[in-house]
């Protein structure tokens, strides 16, 4: 039977938006079926889907940044199977098409309006690596080396996560080197506005973040990639997704609040921030209507318990994050500083771990608009925050968790890798183990349609459940 995501890919390719090609008199060409895709449109379409990577609610609930107020099933891990087919048929196929059109000698000259061939290929490779990195961190093994082939392969095999990670690191290294800053930048690029130096720096930054995931399973590979990426130059400002005051490209948290009043600050987050007088707390949460104070919502309680709490008794997600055009982070300077702090502590780079750690807190305060020298100095002087080499992983993990507020997938990955902060599962968990998920299960279409390859992956990786650990998620 045909694999559904490859079938969708074929359909998508057949219906792709194409530019007109041909002059008056090209009587053998069908003007309604032009042959050369507009690569700028393909890139824009792929970039639009980055929103699904950074605006996800389920992963944000896994790491207990927020609690659900109305219906708490997601906080209690009810959903087991998650669908990845749309990523393959949508943004990943767009990016693959860009690469193919710019690589093929027969079409490479026709798509130069989208930027130089090398620059288009490089950006597509970087974004493809971003998408696949999030996918493999969610599911583990994936169709990868045989994916995106359309009708040529309806039943792709699954690659191990070790293979995928090694290839992603190499892809990012090669893409950064492929960028031509003196040639036309990519068009249709609303994330970086065609700035190829910024794309090069982001490739290095993403490579560093991904390499750090391998610290416990492949430390030599992690160190080499971190050193090279760091030396190549990292992003110099927060990389944000620019939502618009328009329903066609609006902040997903804004959209969620249109349908129901939900997503309050969790008691987990509140209980960490409030004793430290953390100035980020009143940014993360609005005062409760009934009291005028910040009151958290209990995490992971049953619908009955949640329903017994009035809506005006809890503090919802801060308005700064849920305006229609509120930007959301793709990667931040705070995130990188904490990554460098860990790399330094592990001896991967010859830097000061404490300096990067403190820089991470400062960058996070700045990002959320609360930096004040006196407040900052008072904050970092507290015993629970002050740098201590003997507690390096705990301190970095705790502060990185806060700094990654609403960056659900990234925060979830880092929590699984570091095991900090210490999070307790939902009190009314619905999954079999009643533990916080370590991965998400494959879509049932894989079990039913790509059965042989699915079974081989499960045999290697472990049961297709929320509890199976992926390759880099080892016990600390």
Task: Explain what the structure shows.
This protein has 476 residues and is mainly alpha-helical. It is built from 21 helices and eight strands. The strands form four sheets. A two-stranded antiparallel sheet has the order 1-2. Strands 3-7 form a two-stranded antiparallel ribbon. A two-stranded antiparallel ribbon has the order 4-5. The relative contact order is 0.14.
Layout of strands and helices, then pairs:
Layout: H1 4-14, E1 18-19, E2 36-37, H2 39-48, H3 51-54, H4 58-62, E3 66-67, H5 85-89, H6 91-103, H7 117-139, E4 142-143, E5 158-159, H8 161-178, H9 196-213, H10 219-232, E6 239-241, H11 252-259, E7 264-265, H12 267-273, H13 281-284, H14 303-307, E8 328-331, H15 333-345, H16 353-367, H17 373-380, H18 392-403, H19 408-418, H20 444-449, H21 451-461
Antiparallel strand pairs: 1-2, 3-7, 4-5, 6-8
Helix pairs in contact: 2-6, 6-7, 7-8, 7-9, 8-9, 9-10, 9-15, 15-16, 15-18, 16-18, 18-19
Number of strands: 8
Q: Spans with pLDDT under 50 lasting ≥5 residues?
A: 1-34
The proportion of residues forming helix, as a percent range, comes to 40-55%
CATH architectural designation of the domain at 1-20 and 39-62 and 80-234 and 434-471: Alpha Horseshoe
Please list the strands of the largest sheet in the order they lie side by side. Answer: 1-2
Separation of termini? 42 Å
Coarse shape:
globular
User: What's the level 1 CATH class of the domain at 1-20 and 39-62 and 80-234 and 434-471?
Assistant: Mainly Alpha
CATH topology of the domain at 1-20 and 39-62 and 80-234 and 434-471: Serine Threonine Protein Phosphatase 5, Tetratricopeptide repeat
Assembly type: single chain
How large a portion of the residues is in β-strands, by DSSP E?
A: under 5%
| Class inferred from helices and paired strands | mainly alpha
